[in-house]
Design a protein that fits this description.
33 helices; single chain; Serine Threonine Protein Phosphatase 5, Tetratricopeptide repeat; mainly alpha; disordered N terminus; about 0% strand; disordered C terminus
């Protein structure tokens, strides 16, 4: 099987199983803007500096972007656009104090005031200069998000000024879309709790916990609500109520180790104080929850900006540090992720999850030995934690050490007394490990067990169905499985690719073309899918398009062994086939469906 669309980056493995304008650069300049370890490069002109800054920014190398924007400013000191770009990069990079002089200079420019004035307001709140905040938060243009952020900041200023009653009244008056509700109720609960208004706090917390639709839409905020409410109940002497609140949330927030960690510590007798103890921490919490609410694919930079702006108010906030690690991992910045995860405090309920994610990012950063060492330490602490087995097995699999991966999954299965639906990933991954070891007699029962635990699970349907096609077994059932997987996940390019490639291997080339064209649209950057597309085009006589797709596959940086095969096809094309049974001319040794 060709490697390529098989495994996604390790930072996504655990999560998936459990729960700027890009301007091309070239040569040395491109390397300097994308490699954080490269020494600073001096640009010879404004255009060169600006080009390098934008390229670095689009590559998420914000340290280099700051350097090049500053070089551009040296060529054109009065350029307001460059200053705005630099301000945003500084804030997103977490260089808050460096950003403040620019924020002061740009505070009256409408295009950037939502960040410049908010940054200045955060600084004033941090210094307890509350009278400065009101005028700073009077923005000329406000989105729904801006109104919510400035509204909460203003309310927490009232708390800092000793007027929580007015703060609560102001929050209740806030008008906006329906999704405001969860955030409004949560901030009200925190303010009432801090003010010692126990009944009001209890009512607000309960209302927020009962808002399950809102919690499903904003799970990170819901997680904080549950933790705050549990600590509130514990402080009122209601240990059983605190445990129940956490247990109830574990069902909705499936796979969230933080909730489980907190519950287990409370059951063991550990005490928890207020989640929020000051107006500064309350403001930080408001910005944190808004940042996580917008932390979706494609919006990571915007989410990161909100999270970074919350840190000056609460530098040791475990939740913020964890989320910044998560975003860094998603942006393919494992070194940054390792740093943020490592800063999560030792006693935090986020700590175990942070240690696990840190290990996964060590593996992403080509430090597999250290990753394995850390995961084994975590496993020694708790041999019942299936997520640790999955993480460790995933690291072994990433290094193609499927023998050790299989041993880890075997050990995991031994810990499972009565398999439940939540255990399907263990059997699924064990099946993959044995399939890669060419021990199909051990692999197939694991795939079947995973489907028994979770019928119609698309990843398992996809993998087992494809494996049968690859082996020429149970072809009708296999194709039906893959079609079902596509039906369940029509936007998953890897699964759609599996259907197209299955058609190809069965010699049904026109149908293969239809499905593979869909897959390419969904995953245009994937080298394996583009390679498949090229093969299918060749078989239906669209030779020029086949050549284009193979070249595009090479541009996607396939594995070395696949690169050699593609280059050979560009030279000679594909050999003729006598019929459908000859479709496997390439021996697609690394070409199984993605593990999601």
């Amino acid at each position: 099987m060709r490697q390529g669309s098989k495994y996604r980056p390790l930072y996504g493995l655990l999560l998936s199983l459990l729960a700027g304008i890009a301007i091309p650069a070239s040569g040395a300049l491109a390397k300097a803007t994308t490699d954080p370890a490269s020494p600073p490069v001096r640009a010879g002109s404004f255009a060169g500096a600006y080009l390098a800054a934008r390229t670095a920014e689009s590559d998420n190398n914000l340290a280099a972007a700051v350097d090049f924007y500053r070089q551009a400013m040296a060529f054109d000191p009065g350029n307001a656009q460059i200053k705005q770009d630099l301000l945003l990069v500084l804030l997103t990079e977490g260089r808050f104090n460096d950003a403040l002089p620019l924020a002061e200079e740009l505070k009256d420019i409408p295009d950037i005031e939502r960040f410049s004035r908010v940054a200045l307001a955060i600084d004033a709140i941090n210094r307890k200069q509350y009278r400065k905040v009101g005028p700073l938060l009077m923005l000329s243009m406000q989105s729904d998000m801006d109104r919510l952020a400035t509204g909460f900041m203003s309310a927490w200023v009232k708390v800092g000024q000793g007027n929580p009653k007015q703060a609560l009244a102001d929050i209740q008056k806030m008008q906006g879309p329906e999704w405001y509700g969860l955030f409004r109720t949560y901030n009200s609960a925190l303010i009432a709790d801090l003010a010692g208004q126990k009944q009001e706090a209890r009512d607000f917390y309960q209302q927020a916990v009962d808002d399950r639709p809102g919690g499903s839409a904003a799970p990170d905020t819901y997680e904080r609500i549950v933790m705050a409410y549990a600590s509130f109940k514990l402080r009122q002497g209601d240990k059983a109520g605190a445990v129940k609140t956490l247990k109830d949330a574990e069902e909705l927030l499936n796979g969230r180790m933080t909730i489980t960690e907190m519950r287990e510590k409370i059951e063991a007798g550990e005490k928890y104080g207020r989640l929020i103890k000051t107006a500064q921490e309350g403001t930080a919490e408001a910005l944190y929850t808004l940042g996580t609410a917008i932390n979706r694919s494609g919006a990571e930079a915007f989410a990161k900006l909100y999270l970074q702006m919350s840190l000056p108010l609460r530098p040791d906030n475990d939740a913020t540090l964890y989320q910044l690690g998560d975003i860094s991992a998603k942006l393919r910045q494992p070194e940054k992720a390792i740093e943020y995860y490592g800063r999560v405090p030792e006693k935090s309920p986020y700590r175990r999850d942070a240690e696990m994610q840190r290990a996964l990012n060590l593996a992403e950063n080509n430090q597999s030995a250290e990753a394995v060492k850390q995961l084994k330490i975590l496993l020694d602490r708790d041999k019942t934690d299936m997520r640790t087995y999955l993480a460790l097995g995933g690291v072994y699999a990433q290094d193609k050490n499927f023998a050790d991966a299989a041993k880890i999954y075997d050990a995991a299965v031994e810990q499972i007394k009565t398999p439940e639906r939540k255990d399907w990933p263990v059997f699924y991954q064990r099946g993959i490990a044995y399939e890669r070891l060419k021990e199909w007699d051990k692999a197939e029962p694991n795939f079947r067990k995973a489907l028994e635990l979770y019928p119609d699970q698309p990843q398992v349907l996809n993998y087992l169905g494809y494996s049968w096609v690859d082996r020429g077994e149970n072809l009708d059932e296999a194709l039906g499985m893959i079609k079902k997987a596509v039906e369940l996940r029509p936007q998953d390019g890897y699964i759609v690719d599996s259907l197209g490639w299955a058609y190809y291997m069965l010699g049904r080339y026109p149908e293969a073309v239809i499905e593979l064209e869909k897959a390419v649209k969904l995953r245009p950057e994937d080298p394996t899918i583009n390679d498949h597309m090229g093969d299918a085009y060749w078989r239906v006589g669209r030779l020029l398009e086949a050549t284009f797709q193979w070249n595009h596959a090479i541009a996607g940086k396939p594995e070395p062994e696949e690169l050699t095969k593609i280059e050979e096809k560009l030279k000679k094309g594909l050999p003729d086939v006598a019929g459908p049974s000859s479709a496997k001319t390439e021996e697609p040794v690394e070409d199984k469906p993605a593990s999601d």
